[in-house]
Amino acid sequence: MLTLGCPDTVGIVARISGFLQDVGGWITEAAYHSDPDSGWFFTRQAVRADSVAVSLDELRARFAAEVADSLGEGTQWALTDSAAPKRVVLLVSKESHCLGDLLARAYRKELPAEIVGVVSNHRDLEDLTARFGVPFRHVPFEPGADKAPSFAMLREVVDGFAPDVVVLARFMQILPDELCRHWGERVINIHHSFLPSFIGARPYHQAYKRGVKLIGATCHYVTADLDAGPIIEQDVTRIDHGDSVADMVRQGRDIETLVLARGLRWHLEDRVLVYGSRTVVFN
Amino acid sequence: MLTLGCPDTVGIVARISGFLQDVGGWITEAAYHSDPDSGWFFTRQAVRADSVAVSLDELRARFAAEVADSLGEGTQWALTDSAAPKRVVLLVSKESHCLGDLLARAYRKELPAEIVGVVSNHRDLEDLTARFGVPFRHVPFEPGADKAPSFAMLREVVDGFAPDVVVLARFMQILPDELCRHWGERVINIHHSFLPSFIGARPYHQAYKRGVKLIGATCHYVTADLDAGPIIEQDVTRIDHGDSVADMVRQGRDIETLVLARGLRWHLEDRVLVYGSRTVVFN
Amino acid sequence: MLTLGCPDTVGIVARISGFLQDVGGWITEAAYHSDPDSGWFFTRQAVRADSVAVSLDELRARFAAEVADSLGEGTQWALTDSAAPKRVVLLVSKESHCLGDLLARAYRKELPAEIVGVVSNHRDLEDLTARFGVPFRHVPFEPGADKAPSFAMLREVVDGFAPDVVVLARFMQILPDELCRHWGERVINIHHSFLPSFIGARPYHQAYKRGVKLIGATCHYVTADLDAGPIIEQDVTRIDHGDSVADMVRQGRDIETLVLARGLRWHLEDRVLVYGSRTVVFN
Amino acid sequence: MLTLGCPDTVGIVARISGFLQDVGGWITEAAYHSDPDSGWFFTRQAVRADSVAVSLDELRARFAAEVADSLGEGTQWALTDSAAPKRVVLLVSKESHCLGDLLARAYRKELPAEIVGVVSNHRDLEDLTARFGVPFRHVPFEPGADKAPSFAMLREVVDGFAPDVVVLARFMQILPDELCRHWGERVINIHHSFLPSFIGARPYHQAYKRGVKLIGATCHYVTADLDAGPIIEQDVTRIDHGDSVADMVRQGRDIETLVLARGLRWHLEDRVLVYGSRTVVFN
């Protein structure tokens, strides 16, 4: 799998496809995007592994030398083996719907990933996690206490699982800046509103009060700026005046679950490229 | 058509339906809503006109005496003849999509209303309006000039059409408080975002910058507080990273058009009851 | 909970609401529907249990005597205690998504029901069922063999659970007429297409071949006529030319899961009234 | 604009992009699709006209010689000037919604096309067409009479407008095979159901009878096989038990209008490639 973002200019596609042809690569899926505003070019190309004669390391070295090094400043690219499942750690609190859904998807082998651990500030979801044979770790956050030691322990526990991706699956603690930077672009959150509406706490209560006619959910990368990270996926569902906050919470669970599952799958399949506060999603 | 909102208590439905039975009313459509939070009760009942033996005036007098006067404080109700088409005035600027759509709907007699006039701060849409034989009035808003005389003229021109409803169909001037109060709950606006996201100017530019994956539109009653009035209807459409602001503007037009048409129809059919910042929509 | 369907005439609402007022019933949710084509009237009324002075048996006796017996021929009604959870049996084959979703919903106590047993013609889902502590029974259907003994055993096993509802959660055997009649209106199926499109086997293959741009799922009551029973709920999701049959199967799973969960919940909450080949869904 | 479909093999993208680089072409939009089932490859590439040094004729000659002629058997391609607006003829009967919408879109210059004529078997829409200054031709179809002369006249009248595209915008006559063949892949129809459900006459009546919970519309190319041509676009809207056939007809109009407008725009922008009974839509 090749993903690449670079300054746009004439002939990039020709050079990349020429290179892939040289190494015998059979392209099974190719997507391109030129962004006129930023003047940036993005591509994702899935190549049949058995069609390429050389090793992944050699492929990377040659791609760097023959293509990437002469593309413009700021070029970012990756050549990965999509057969290798990514390691996912889930951070949860008390709500089970996203956790249960992702465990079930992993159980039926729908995700190109392994859920290697579940970490929580509560013990409520330990039982559900155990039913699927996934390790569960409890990191207590005592009410009123200094959170720094808890976050330090969280970092250590999560890093112990060596994750490729950390998913905040309704984890109700705000990550400190330091942890956001440490985990970089590997953290995905599901927020239970259609961002940028209803940032912060109790979005369904906010939505009820405002009288909106649709509620939604947003899957996004986590940055230090709360609920402002690049959006991967969003969706909504219709409500009406008869729906109480409790009804909205219940219907919202289904949207949160689906939006997180879609966003996570696209991330795991290297379909999401970030630039600035926006994402390119090749799906 | 009976619409009513009152403090909730036991037996309201029995009293109303008992009254309607007494006057021989055949209910063709009935909807009820009890709001547990506010403790308020709402209903809308469509009665076959030919099934009622008495005149509308007598019906009103009897309903007041026999039912409404003994309901709780704050009770609001209306008994109207839905056969009488409502008078609609459209306020527009330069964008033709909502105007063209409503003129076409009126042309094919889809709306229980007559569009009696179109008023604009520009002359761009005079030609389109004339093609449908609807009176057009131009109220100039000179750039940089004091807007008060323009709004005074706008008020006079609009009031001259004796409208039941004033629709801001992409009218790009913010009504002053005084005019909002004067027209009361008779003003409907279409805002080109999924409120409360992207309040104010250039919402598609804001949406592009934030990188949202759905764009929307909101039909709401106008209050003195910009884009904060009670919402009648909202909808969204999916976009992706390939959509420029211009693409969003084009796709947004279709959503704006539909959302306004639906919201306006529900208002015209007395399906919308307002309480506080929320609406009950019996559709 | 009162549900009722009867020939439409003047004054039904008044009589029912008058009766409920007499027994002190506080109506928390009320929905009505008059069907002009069939001339039939439908209602569902949720009454606060603690507001009614008499027992459920007495309430039924009085409702029959004072209201229902004098309504027209064919009147059907039920007065039930919605606090009593319904007993659900799931019939499954090899696909785990609907099963896993319903087990997870039951686990988080989202459904007003208890899943009392899972019955399958395969053993594949025994492990998943066991993880949630629900009894699993295997009823073999040998390829090529006479199915009558298997269906007889299925009937016995299912009836042994004394279910209020039998759900075909991707059960890949067609129930014989006799079994449909035996279980009556208590059997709900999820079909993996937007009916009446793509009736029968391999609907996603049919959809791919036809080149449709949306795929869907349908939750319906089972009748002797395959895939023709009254529809409770349907939904669709967008696909495009890039989606293979396998992609459609994967995306279809999410729609099937949601549509079945919604349809089942509405059934469990007595929101679905059947007449002929159609349903009234008070949601 | 380059569109191309050919047997898939290694290196096609490299050859096309190499060619475009040679002539200096700046690609502003590029989409590719490999269909594993048919083993066919499709691409659409938008090139900035001012970036190409040679004339369109020379470009075609060189592309044939240097690329297309050596691609596999059955290869189809087109190089067109997307600045040239296409000529559209609309065929209508009595329903005005699609006609009015397309006239309004053309009026606000939203479509890359000119509506050069409207032809109808009735006179009902002559007035609306005239309001937009578009030529209207009436071709009578007398009830009970032989339709062959009418279709011969229709062919002559339509061909007189020299259309690039013929749109059946709720034209209620079934084109004879001969006319389908004559106009080839230039005819687009809007059918008022979610095909393949409810083929043929009165689809909303069929939908009502079946009790579906969503209604839809389908934009497709016309072939001799009724309602079986390749689908360009479809969409649906939710209905419920309260919606009569008349309500479905009204709500269906909005879906038909939108689906036709989207499908037609994609066709006009050369985004639709047909293969067999399916379409690739690069949107």
Automatic annotation (TrEMBL), chains A, B, C, D:
Tree of life domain: Bacteria
Signal peptide positions (record): none
Pathway: Purine metabolism; IMP biosynthesis via de novo pathway; formate from 10-formyl-5,6,7,8-tetrahydrofolate: step 1/1
Keywords for this protein: Hydrolase, One-carbon metabolism, Purine biosynthesis
Residue ranges annotated for the Formyl transferase N-terminal domain, each copy included: 86-261
Cited InterPro entries: ACT-like_dom_sf, Formyl-FH4-Hydrolase_C, Formyl_transf_N, Formyl_transf_N_sf, PurU, PurU_ACT
E.C. numbers: 3.5.1.10
Pfam families (alphabetical): Formyl_trans_N
One BP term from GO: one-carbon metabolic process
Gene3D superfamilies assigned to the protein according to its UniProt record, in alphabetical order: 3.30.70.260, Formyl transferase, N-terminal domain
Group of enzyme by EC: hydrolase
GO MF, one example: formyltetrahydrofolate deformylase activity
Catalytic reactions of this protein: (6R)-10-formyltetrahydrofolate + H2O = (6S)-5,6,7,8-tetrahydrofolate + formate + H(+)
Residues annotated as the enzyme's active site: 227
Spans traversing the lipid bilayer: none
Role summary: Catalyzes the hydrolysis of 10-formyltetrahydrofolate (formyl-FH4) to formate and tetrahydrofolate (FH4).
Protein family membership: Belongs to the PurU family.
HAMAP family cross-referenced by the UniProt entry: PurU
Protein's recorded name: Formyltetrahydrofolate deformylase
Organism: Gordonia jinhuaensis
